[in-house]
Design a protein that fits this description.
single chain, 388 residues, Jelly Rolls, 8-stranded antiparallel β-sheet, binds calcium ion
Length: 388
């Protein structure tokens, strides 16, 4: 399961890792990076006392410069205000405010309403007015955790990029001010979380004739290795017919397959109902019509027991236009019945997932992907507040 906890000290480590992994290789797995310009002034100016309302109080800290854009267009940035004697107050611009007023929080990405630092004698009624500066600062990690194998629910295509990890609600981060970074042993990827919430899981059926109600059309018995391949009408699993497969040859393998049309990196959900009479029958979405290598496929499920069971698995395609198959390595007799076969192509996740967008915060794509395996576990996942 996912475990998230807050951290501010891990921010620098994460940014360093992103920078290092993005650099050309020189033969070492990592290169030492140096962070410079971690604070850059993006706006500054002067304001009169007449146009300034400053609230210093812990819990309700805010500022109002009678401007619709300053500092509200700089959420996540550090606001510094000095009175005419040079005394300083500074705090981080929060994610929202009221009217021209803007809430101030203690830490970037935080929720505690307070100024980060205050010179004790700062004058909140300075008739000579104030100067201010708005500084862009390093992103900060606001949540971190890990993801088990087959639970990332990722699409890594440039068209549909999204992440919807099992048990993790990302809807709070759909504000256009967060990024997500996912790490494996030697790989990582990251992108911005779109401000657009997914409308809900959207899918397209890729299997033809998964119900076997009239025939076994659209299915291919590779080399006829399944010696029994027929539509069964005697007590079918559902409807008027189901799939019956059997083979007794002692060596080799057998597969019954159907090609599905979707690009590599797509998320799919495979479901079917089945019962296994004997042998070690499994299902797989693999890269060829023959007995597949699971490292080249996804959604591997082993049939268990003579009673009808419902099978369900999510996976990200490892090749373009792969094959769904029922397959066995031979050696003993193998026999199964199957029905209601479905492979749904998930083009948008549930509303708790996150569409991933590129640096323009619009185009669906990860910003960087060194080749993560979406079906494997992720040792670390960070939610990063970047602000505006
Ligand atoms: Ca049926």
């Amino acid at each position: 399961m996912l475990k998230f906890f807050r951290s501010k000290y891990l921010a620098y480590l994460s940014i360093l890792l992103m920078l290092c992994l993005g650099l050309p290789s020189t033969g070492n797995a990592m290169r030492r990076g140096t962070l410079v310009n971690d604070r850059v002034t993006v706006a500054s100016g002067v304001v009169t006392l007449l146009n300034t309302v400053i609230v210093l109080t812990n819990g309700v800290a805010s500022v109002d410069f009678t401007s619709a854009t300053v500092p509200r267009n700089y959420q996540g940035c550090l606001l510094q205000v000095r009175d005419s004697a040079g005394r300083l107050i500074q705090g981080f611009v929060y994610t929202n405010g009221t009217g021209t007023a803007q809430n101030i929080v203690l830490t970037k990405g935080g929720t505690t309403r307070n100024w980060t630092t205050q010179d004790g004698s700062f004058n909140i009624a300075d008739t000579s007015g104030y100067t201010y500066a708005i500084l862009r600062t390093l992103p900060v990690i606001v949540a971190t955790g890990s993801i088990l194998a087959n639970q990332a629910m990722m699409d890594t295509t440039a068209t549909n990029s999204f992440v919807a990890p099992v048990g993790l609600d990302l809807s709070a981060y759909q504000t256009g001010t967060y990024a997500i970074a996912l790490y494996q042993a030697t790989k990582m990827c990251w992108g911005y979380i779109s401000a657009t919430a997914p409308a809900g899981e959207t899918s397209t059926e890729l299997i033809t004739n998964g119900t076997f109600e009239t025939d076994t059309g659209s299915w291919t018995n590779y080399n006829n290795y399944w010696t029994t391949f027929e539509r069964n009408t005697t007590s079918p699993i559902s409807g008027t017919g189901d799939l019956h497969l059997a083979v007794t040859v002692a060596t080799g393998y057998a597969s019954l397959s159907q090609q599905i049309i979707a690009p590599v990196g797509s998320l799919v959900r495979n479901t079917f109902n089945a019962k296994e009479i004997s042998g070690g029958v499994r299902s797989l979405i693999g890269n060829s019509v023959s007995y597949g290598n699971v490292s080249l496929g996804c959604c591997e499920q082993f049939l268990t027991g003579a009673g009808v069971s419902a099978y369900s698995s999510y996976g990200t395609l490892r090749s373009t236009n792969p094959y769904f198959m029922f397959c066995v390595l031979l050696g003993t007799s193998n026999e199964m019945y199957g029905d209601d076969v479905s492979v749904l192509w998930i083009s948008d996740p549930a509303s708790t997932g996150a569409q991933i967008v590129a640096a323009d915060k619009v185009t669906r794509s990860f910003v960087y992907n060194s080749g993560v395996d979406p079906n494997a576990s992720f040792s670390r996942v960070d939610i990063i507040y970047v602000g505006q």
